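Homework help board

Subject: predicted structure for assignment chain

Our instructor gave us this sequence and asked us to write out the predicted structure in token form, then describe one feature. I got the tokens but I'm not sure how to describe them. Can anyone check?
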Amino acid sequence: MFRTFISSVAGVCLCGTVAFAQPVTQHLSTPPPYTTTVGAHARFSKARINLGPPNLALTVSMVTAGGGPTAFDAQKLIGTLTGNGPLTTTELAALTKRFGADNVASFVTTFKYVVTDALAQATTAGVALPTTPVPDPTDGKALAAALYTAGLEPRGGFDVEYMLDTLVTHVIHVEVMNDIDANPDLGPKADANYHAVLTQAMLDLKSAYKL
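My token output:
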């Protein structure tokens, strides 16, 4: 079912409030098959899932902005998104103050794992990523706006899991979360923390750029 779903969405090529930025209780892993009745809402919020085709050009842009598939670094991504200037320093300090240095470090480690795992699953499924990233991965403001827009669910409001569904499909997003939970070096706490810190970073970018 996993491979069939990926193939179908790849036919053409492949949390709403500040409160959602806090780590929350881990939900049970979502079992396959992934349909509108199984795991019909996000794992860490009540946002709806996105079963539509992914925006792979945006995925490539995000990964490139973070250093590329073999050297992805969440801090580099945040630096790009915030212009590698005063806003970068302010944002990293704000995330550290809000979540603590250990949780920010966990976020960086987990995000690298997410990118590696998601791209490996896409390769296994025969999904070819586009060669041209959109938007330009050096344009932090444009990339931040595109990522934020990717996370706007139909009912309104931003949800980071809807954004991740948009980037890699709901199927791969769930598989990656399950892999994080099963990884003894990461686990459910790192999974929840990763979603929480990424949510807060996106909400901060929304505010900074008035998206």
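Reply (TA_rk): Your tokens look well-formed. For the description, you could write something like this. Residues 1-39 have pLDDT under 50 and may be disordered. That's the kind of observation they're looking for.
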